[in-house]
Amino acid sequence: MLEVVQAYDREHIAELPTDDAAALERKLTVAHERFADRRGWLKPHERVGVLHRLADLVLQQRETFAMRIAREGGKPYSDALVETDRAIDGIRNAADLPRTRGGVEIPMGLTPASENRHAWTILEPIGVVAAISAFNHPLNLIVHQVAPAIATGCPVIVKPAAATPLSCFALVKLVLEAGMPEGWVQTLVPESRSLSTAFAGDSRVAFLSFIGSAAVGWHLRANLAPGTRCALEHGGVAPVIIDRSADLDSIIEPLVKGGYYHAGQVCVSVQRIYVHEALKNVFIERFAERVARLRVGDPRLPDTEVGPLIEPAEAERVANWVEEAVSTGARLIGGGRLSNTTLAPAILVDPPKAAKVSREEAFGPITCVFGFTDLDKAIREANSLPVAFQSSIFTRDLTVAMEAAERLDASAVMVNDHTAFRTDWMPFAGRRQSGYGIGGIPYTAREMTAEKMIVFRQ
């Protein structure tokens, strides 16, 4: 059995049965049979209908989902409501895709050999989808994997994070209530890590959607069966550059949100802030004052802004990283252990380059502030790590904005916004060690299709 506890105080919530090898085999067999029976594929209007009904059902349970997210994942209730709203919109986004996605005509008759032929392509579901998700957005990330699979007609088996499975199970229950036939959307809670590897590497899996740590993601990719496609979403150590022309009045709030939203447990959370020396002191003063006013505590309370880390071990790790940075020369502002799960937000000024907080994803309520005088050097520092995801530049100088946008090594560059901004219909992807393939609901749906060409001879 898998015990699920509240992230904040570790109180028991529920127990879920786990799946053994026999259960995994049954689920893969059912999913593969659904896909192999082409005459039994769900028609587009049936899939669209399921998604519309699902969105309505989630909306009816909006507050229940938000409180569930706050309890199992530790995300503050106000942010959990936003996550639920995003999930509802994402489901509707997926429902719209069959109306706008299709194949294309391939020109014929351009050579004598191609006369009297017509050719076009159609998009077919790629096959069984294995979806492995992360804890930090326990509803919306599941939607990002399940809704595109429904929209494209792929059977999907989804494995939620062990710490936050309840939102996934609740959503899948509603998928069935919305009219999805049995076997098309299933959950998996493997009893061992080896079963997760076996799940992802099974030859019946056509597409792996993985959201989680780089070490696990690259390991799973290396063990995929021949022909299995995949998309991996890992994390980064997101850099922000504050140019000397930046308007301090407008940047404090977005940087506080980008750095401390969900206690920094976001793959594109603001972590490295490079601020021009002309603004550094006043920026640190104003930034620190605002961070100190963040309300930290029980995520179930409506006014909480920063909740716990997902597990006590993660709080211990982040606290140790802060201690290491301070012991090697960083100046600490704020911080401290509030409980075995909860840390006060911390700012580290000028941590050494070798410190973990300067080069690895913290996934905690930490930001690091560095000074610079030369934009070229700031960009080089921002690009200096083997991870590359989203980055940002704050400036009122158009030339600086364009130069940074073109030179920052990132899949997305935000101008005058924090690195954690995203909408669920935009492409979302890490470069290099930060990921592989493209996320975002329309892009994931495209990854879950295979293009077939049909050539008709008159």
Task: Describe it.
The chain is of the alpha/beta class and 458 residues long. It has two domains: 2-234 and 434-457, Aldehyde Dehydrogenase, Chain A, domain 1; 238-423, Aldehyde Dehydrogenase, Chain A, domain 2 (3-Layer(aba) Sandwich), CATH 3.40.309. It contains 15 helices and 20 strands. The protein has helices at 21-36, 44-60, 62-73, 77-100, 140-152, 166-177, 193-201, 214-222, 248-260, 277-292, 312-327, 356-359, 375-382, 398-407, 441-447; strands spanning 2-5, 12-16, 105-106, 117-125, 128-132, 156-159, 185-187, 205-211, 229-233, 238-242, 270-276, 331-334, 346-349, 366-372, 387-388, 390-394, 412-415, 431-432, 435-436, 449-457. The strands form five sheets. It has a seven-stranded mixed beta sheet with strand order 12-13-14-11-10-16-17, sandwiched between helices. Helix 2 runs antiparallel to helix 4, helix 2 packs antiparallel against helix 5 (140-152) and helix 2 (44-60) packs across helix 6 (166-177). The longest helix is centred in the first third of the chain and has 24 residues, at 77-100. The termini are far apart. The mean pLDDT is 94.
